[in-house]
Design goal:
361 residues; alpha/beta; 16 helices; 57% helix; 11% strand
Length: 361
């Protein structure tokens, strides 16, 4: 049995952190579903920028959309919704089979709305309605500015993938926003069955510290953060507050481990996937890591319910001079800036494609 199937049978969902038109057109995504137990996928501006700039698969559609007067962001979202709608349809059987628990795809809001709560809520509702797929998440960053938009969107019944979480504090703040949104729906007599996932980025912790700590601590911080957040996740699900909402029919905001591609060339290429196995969670992984885990990955156990030795490991990093609170804040801030840069690169790639097509025609 492939290790990917073992994870699936253990109760962890594997989502592909990639989407391209070529993946769809060649049947590769369908093969990953059938052969590697992939049950969902995520996208972001960087992924789409690479897909559009490095492929001719979008050229004809970009040309057609330009001829209708669409440019910039509006043209991009048309392209993205085309791809993600097709992917959502491929995952529809999973979504139905799991009673809406799995089988999702995700679309990122424009990073230009990061500090605009009302604009984010309106854009999330519009994109969700336009996609017209029950298994589409809209991604909103779990930042101080983004959390109010998460609460408002959940209260409005829009499924949300909370992104750019790096620490337990970030996770707890996003979970609070989700729960408040559900509580508002219960108080209003509305269905509390609005789905969400909380995406916690892990490998970047090690990328930022691997050359600043003793070798014995190298590549251990991301996993320790994951263990710590997993304990917080399980604690929330066991709380009286959540149990009350579950009684009304609410479904948990599932924990998603993101950024699980190995950054350290000296470490295992499946380091994080192997270490983060846990039921009722999601691991979203790059295509390269998915293929590696399907080829030679091993499932040797699950994350401890109580976080295991994570607090001891985190204390070791503090003793080594790492300010974990500040690093978490920096990682989130840098992640947001990276998405802004990718967004501008994406729009530039679309503009460049348009000019090339006009020159050819």
């Amino acid at each position: 049995m492939k290790a990917t199937k073992e994870l699936h049978d253990l109760g962890q969902s594997l989502w592909l952190d990639n989407i391209t038109r070529d993946l769809l057109d060649t049947g590769t995504l369908k093969r990953y579903i059938d052969e590697l137990s992939v049950t969902g996928l995520t996208s972001n501006p960087t992924i789409f920028e690479h897909a559009i700039s490095k492929s001719k698969s979008y050229d004809a559609e970009i040309g057609r959309l330009l001829s209708t007067g669409l440019t910039g962001e509006k043209l991009f979202f048309e392209l993205a919704l085309q791809d993600l709608s097709r992917a959502a349809d491929l995952f529809a059987p999973v979504h139905e089979r799991t009673a809406g628990n799995d089988g999702f795809v995700s679309l990122e809001l424009s990073p230009l709305l990061a500090n605009d709560t009302k604009g984010s809520v309106a854009a999330a509702a519009l994109l969700h309605e336009k996609a017209n797929r029950p298994n589409l998440f809209i991604k909103i960053p779990g930042t101080k500015e983004g959390n109010p938009a998460i609460e408002e969107s959940i209260a409005a019944g829009v499924a949300i993938n909370v992104t750019l979480l790096f620490s337990r504090a970030h996770y707890l703040a996003s979970a609070e926003a989700y729960i408040r949104g559900i509580e508002r729906r219960v108080a209003a007599g509305l269905s509390p069955d609005v789905r969400s996932v909380a995406s916690v980025f892990l490998s970047r912790w090690d990328g930022a510290t691997m050359d600043k700590v003793p070798d014995r601590l190298r590549d251990k911080l991301g996993i320790a953060i994951g263990q710590q957040v997993y304990k917080a996740y399980r604690d929330i699900l066991a709380s009286d507050r959540w149990q009350r909402l579950a009684n009304f029919g609410a479904r948990p905001q599932r924990l998603l481990f993101a950024s699980t591609g190995t950054k350290d060339p000296k470490a295992s290429d499946v380091l994080y996937v192997a270490a983060l196995a846990a039921p009722n969670t999601i691991d979203t992984i790059p295509e390269k890591t998915l293929l590696a885990f399907g080829d030679h990955g091993k499932v040797s156990g699950t994350l401890p319910r109580d976080g295991g030795d994570c607090e001891t490991v985190l204390d070791d990093f503090r003793k080594a001079g790492i300010d974990l609170e500040q690093l978490g804040a920096d990682l989130q801030s840098n992640g947001a800036k990276s998405f802004d840069e990718s967004w501008q690169n994406l729009l530039s790639a679309i503009e460049s494609k348009g000019k090339q097509l006009q020159t050819v025609s």
